Amino acid sequence: MSETTIQAEPRTEFGKGAARRIRRADKVPAVLYGHGSDPLHVTLPGHDLMMALKHANALLSVVLDGKAQLALPKQVQRDPIKGFIEHADLLIVSRGEKVVVDITVVIEGEAAPDALVVTETNSVPVEAEATAIPESVIVSVEGMQVGEHVTAADLRLPEGASVQLEAEHLIVNVVAAPTAAQVDAELAEAEAEVGIEHQPSEAELEQQAEEAAAGDEADGDAAEPPEQS
């Protein structure tokens, strides 16, 4: 993973009012901590930080007073509506140091036509060197059949990285795809729970019509008088 250099300024003002002034200047209040050192309170350029953090576990080279320090985002607070970064906690790391971070599981390929791929684990904890953290782990489900699955032991990571889960931990499960009737039944049950009157689907209407026709035929057969010998 490449490093993103970002310029920092020391922060001397604290409190909600100071934080609002920092954000109005398109900057972000942040804290650098780790390795037993005292926390460093800084401000970072908002746009540069937002672009850098588009990648998960982005490795930052934070330059403060001419001195660069490697850091990983540990906790990032964003505005729940507008999405801009409100505050960032950055963990100081060193070259060659191993860290444990969560990386995303990415599913690729198509399973068998009658199969449904269920992702049981969306991200996995991985131990890797701070300068060589994989962005994601790829899981191929191409051609997988009902009953097959992928566990943590099946994951393939770059050399030097390892998954921090039990080998049998389930990542992906391949199950039988539900029929239209099963989907309709589940929908009807969910609607009933919230008090919504269920509207029958086209498949349900066709099934009801077939059942009614079969019933009429049975009634007609029963009504015919026995033949006279």
Task: Describe, in short, the structure shown.
With 229 residues, the chain is α+β, with helices and mostly antiparallel strands.
Task: Walk me through what this model shows.
This protein is α+β, with helices and mostly antiparallel strands and 229 residues long. It folds into three domains: 3-93, Ribosomal Protein L25, Chain P (Beta Barrel), CATH 2.40.240; 99-176, Ribosomal protein L25, C-terminal domain (RNA Polymerase Alpha Subunit, Chain A, domain 2, Beta Complex); 180-222, no CATH class. Helices cover 23% and strands 39% of the residues. It is built from four helices and 14 strands. It has helices at 16-24, 46-52, 180-193, 202-223, and strands at residues 3-7, 9-10, 27-34, 37-45, 59-64, 67-78, 85-92, 98-108, 115-119, 123-129, 136-140, 149-151, 162-163, 170-176. The strands form three sheets. A seven-stranded mixed sheet has the order 1-5-6-7-3-4-2. A four-stranded mixed sheet has the order 11-8-10-13, with no helix packed on it. A hairpin with a 2-residue loop joins strand 5 (59-64) and strand 6 (67-78). The chain starts with a strand and ends in a 6-residue tail after the last helix. 17% of the residues are buried. The model has no long low-confidence stretch (mean pLDDT 86).
